[in-house]
Amino acid sequence: MHTLSVEERRILDSIQESEVVGLLQALIQARSDFPPGDCVTAVSVIADKLTKANIPFDILANNPHQPNLVATLPGNAITPTLLYHAHVDTVAPGDPAVWRHPPFSGVVEDGLIYGRGAGDDKSSVAAQVMALVTLARAGVKVNGRFQVVVVSDEESGAKQGTRWLRDNQHLQPDFLVVGEQTQNRVAVAERVACGIDLTIFGKSTHGAMPWAGDNAVLKTARVLVWLEKKLFPQLAAKSHPYLPSATLNIGKITGGLQWNIVPETCKVEMDRRLLPGETREAAMAEIEALLDEYNDTIEPLQYELFSTGKVAPNINTDPNEPFVQCAKSALQVVTGQPQELTGYVQTSDGRWFAGDGFPIIIVGPSDPAVGHATNEHVSVEQLVEATKFLTLLALRWLNQTK
Ligand SMILES: [Zn+2]
Question: 310: Cβ–Cβ under 8 A, 6 or more apart, which residues?
Answer without folding.
Answer: none
